[in-house]
Fold this sequence. Notes:
Blueprint: E1 3-10, H1 27-39, E2 46-47, E3 56-65, H2 72-80, E4 87-95, E5 107-116, E6 129-131, H3 137-145, E7 149-152, E8 167-178, E9 181-188, H4 195-207, H5 215-222, E10 237-243, H6 255-263
Parallel strand pairs: 3-10, 5-6
Antiparallel strand pairs: 1-3, 1-4, 2-3, 5-9, 5-10, 7-8, 8-9
Amino acid sequence: MPRMALGVAYDGSSWQGWQTQTGGRTVQDRLESALGQFLAQPVGTICAGRTDTGVHGLGQVVHIDTAVQRRMESWVRGLNALLPDSIAVQWAQAVPDTFHARFSAVSRTYLYLVRNSRVRSPMLHGRAGWVYHALDLASMREAARFLVGEHDFSCFRSSQCQAASPVRTLQALDIQRYGDFFLFTFKANAFLHHMVRNLMGALLYVGQGRQAPAWMEALLAQRDRRLAAPTFAPDGLYLAKVDYPAEFGLPVLPADKALFSHLGFYPAGC
Length: 270
């Protein structure tokens, strides 16, 4: 049966995460409902990575199997006409049956956007995290060096995590400052449940001077979630990009460009 890949973006603020639930208030439920209307038959989706309540998607990738034929433009415009304003298909492409949205992915990139200001902005509610205390960029970058590479990330793992192993390879962790905004980029082969939000909590502790950068190395060695910082809010977290082998020819957009394009503004210095 022919296979289609779809690129999906969504504002996660009003949804209970990606994965289907009984109440139907998830992105997967709403997308599959639209697909059922569009194709006149029920269809299931496989995604690149499940996101939690309040987490956004810029570069989520899903695949479906269906014998129904539609023009590529119709996949985008037709589905978007059936989706709520907070979810939109960005592109559609036929792929071979060897493609799998989850298992073919070689890396996933998450972005976390933080506004560092004495006063919160109502315009950025749900779109960016907010930190009141001043953040030190150099300290956070020093702490980030301890996290890159293959590690047991038990101290940054949710108690509800169902992954068989806590070992992951964090391929890159970059932190940039644009005026009042800090942009954190996390790239890994895969992530544990709440891993990015837990890493953010620890990095922000370091940025505020509550812990030294070397604390990060100690946390990795101790492998005890109770010793790390609290889980940070989901507001500014985005699944920004999923990378696949070039043979599949899927659209590629730099993660930061995707974020600022969707937000509709470019922070000073970007």
